[in-house]
Amino acid sequence: MALEIERRFLVISDAWLRFVNRRYWITQTYLAQNNEINLRVRVSEHKAWLAIKSGGAGRSRREYEYPIPTADAAELVAGASLPAIEKWRHEVMQDAHLWEVDVYEGANAGLIVAEIELKSPDEDFSRPAWVGREVTDDLAYRNISLALRPYSLW
Questions:
Q1: With a threshold of 0.70, does the pTM exceed it?
Q2: Phi, psi at residue 147, to the nearest 5°?
C-alpha cells in the first residue's frame, strides 16, 4: 500500500519565489469520487498519470499512481463531468524538505497552497515564514473540492 503523508498550508507572501528550483503546469481532472475514493487523471510536461486516492480529511491517505499514455488521458479528460483543475506547481527546497507550491488558475485563481510530504505523521519540519494557516484538515482546500466548488465561488 502506498501511503501519502502530507501537510497543506496557505501561502501568505511571495518570499518563496526566490527559492523555486522547478516550475511546471498541471492539469488534473477527477473522473469519479465519493466519500472513500477519488479517481484522478493528471497531465503535466507531456506525461500523464492515473491516480486513486482515499478520500476524507487527515494527514495520511492511501495513494496509487500509474503512468498512462497521454492519448488515453486526453480521452478520459474529454469524457469527465467535472471541470479540470489548472495550476502552476513550483518546487521549493527549504531546510532539507521539498515544498510544492501550487498557484491555481482558472476558476481557482488567487489561491496559493503549499504542501509538504513527510515520511511519518510525526516528522519534524520547520515552517518557512511565507507559510500561513494550515489547511490540511479543511476539505474545502482539497483539489477534488476545488473542482466541485471553485475558490472563485467562496
A1: yes
A2: -70, -40
